[in-house]
From TrEMBL:
Its EC number is 1.3.5.1. GO terms for molecular function: 2 iron, 2 sulfur cluster binding; 3 iron, 4 sulfur cluster binding; 4 iron, 4 sulfur cluster binding; electron transfer activity; metal ion binding; succinate dehydrogenase (quinone) activity. The keyword Transcription does not apply. Residues 171-199 form the 4Fe-4S ferredoxin-type domain. This is succinate dehydrogenase. Keywords: 2Fe-2S, 3Fe-4S, 4Fe-4S, Iron, Iron-sulfur, Metal-binding, Oxidoreductase, Tricarboxylic acid cycle.
Length: 242
């Protein structure tokens, strides 16, 4: 395409669809990085097509390589089947579960309490983090970054009454401790949701709540103990204590 200097990648896709090939299939709606529907892979990394200037993505050979998001089945062209993504969000019970009978009045939060869940609340469910998570490439059972970020939003919500039950569930295989800490989801996230940071927050709550009967928690505790006692990691002891 010529004349793409002022166009976003999504504008280019629209130009192609409207003038060259009407069968080209992709998702879009808001064009403003709000709805989360236009995520695709460009040059190997998941991005929001409406958030990136095409000129910033063009490589030396004048091309942008586009692919559908990873870790989900392509349906047609750049559209993928989001069912596994939504199934995993559903698994973390993404709604408040107060332990008292719900008050007829609003339940207030302090600014400090809201700050704990503010970042996770910005997730637009675009799937960019899910697409590029390296654990999901090898383990379908992993809940993945978006569902875990959503989980943190309820684990640390002052109005929720199921914190212990939630962190117990999230500490099972496929949960928080299966994350490899690669940080790719933070790189890919177009919002402040930054899933890996949220996963670390759930880990902290799990340890504070005494949910430590699993390899991941034991590994974290042994790691900390080793550094505290000697200033370095004792690689011989950590696997044994984990
Ligand atoms: S930090 Fe964890 S959740 Fe995020 S991409 Fe890496 S393995 Fe996946
Ligand atoms: S956490 Fe970020 S990258 Fe993942 S679905 Fe939400 S907004 Fe998209
Ligand atoms: S079209 Fe809505 S986020 Fe890109």
């Amino acid at each position: 395409m010529d004349g793409t200097d002022d166009l976003t990648l999504l504008d280019c896709l629209n130009q192609i669809k409207w003038t060259l090939d009407g069968s080209l299939t992709y998702r879009m709606s808001c064009r403003s990085a709000i709805c989360g529907s236009c995520a695709v892979k460009a040059n190997g990394h998941a991005i929001l097509a409406c958030q990136k200037q095409a000129s910033h993505l063009v490589k030396d050979n004048d091309t942008i390589t586009l692919e559908p998001l990873g870790n989900m089945k392509p349906i047609k062209d750049l559209a993928v089947d989001f069912k596994p993504f939504w199934d995993k969000v559903d698994k973390v019970s993404p709604y408040l579960q107060p332990d008292k009978k719900t008050s007829e009045k609003e339940t207030k939060q302090s600014p400090e309490q809201f700050k704990l869940i503010d970042d996770a609340s910005t997730c637009i469910m675009c799937g960019a983090c899910y697409s590029d998570c390296n654990v999901l490439e090898v383990d379908d059972n992993f809940l993945g970054p978006a569902a875990l970020a959503k989980a943190q939003r309820f684990v640390q919500d002052s109005r929720d009454g199921k914190t212990l039950a939630r962190v117990k569930e999230l500490s099972k295989p496929g949960g928080i401790w299966d994350c490899t800490h690669c940080g790719e989801c933070v790189e890919r996230c177009p919002k402040p949701a930054e899933p890996f940071d949220r996963i670390k927050e759930i880990m902290t709550v799990a340890l504070e709540q005494g949910v430590t009967s699993n390899n991941g928690a034991r590994h974290a505790l042994s790691f900390t103990k080793s550094v505290k006692s000697s200033g370095s990691l004792n690689e011989n002891i950590i696997p044994v204590e984990s």
